[in-house]
Design brief:
128 residues, mainly beta, four-stranded antiparallel beta sheet, two-stranded antiparallel sheet, YmaF family protein, YmaF
């Protein structure tokens, strides 16, 4: 099955560790539907006497159909370490005035001098 996808590629002048350049792909439609993203941010639970702040943008998903978004970000550095946050949002939750948002939750990677993780949860920003 083929799904038509449109978008554009931006070439990066930065070289990776192998001396090669990279590209960033920005999708603009998926199967004829425009794609959209959501912002997400929050503060983790307290663990090992501290918390972490985080913020990011979800991966794109098609508009107007049931969908979820993948997300990934790195927390702030607290107590000399940081954690990775990665997951998939819940399904779209419609808003009365139009658009939608998603719930997300999970547990960070384990890190720190005293290895530990943090819980996190929240709602994405609304879609346009």
């Amino acid at each position: 099955m083929e799904i038509p996808v449109t978008g554009f590629i931006i070439e990066s002048s930065d070289l990776n560790k192998d001396g090669e350049h990279s590209h960033v792909l920005y999708l603009t439609s998926w199967d004829g539907r425009p794609v959209h993203r959501h912002h997400f941010s929050g503060v983790t639970s307290v663990s090992d006497g501290h918390d972490h702040r985080y913020a990011g943008t979800t991966e794109p998903a098609p508009t107007g159909v049931p969908h979820t978004h993948h997300y990934m970000t790195i927390t702030s550095i607290n107590n000399g370490h940081r954690h990775e946050i990665r997951g998939v949002t819940g399904p779209a939750i419609p808003l009365p005035e139009g658009g939608h948002y998603h719930k997300f939750r999970g547990v960070t990677t384990v890190d720190g001098t005293h290895p530990h993780s943090h819980k996190y949860s929240g709602n994405t920003s609304p879609s346009d």
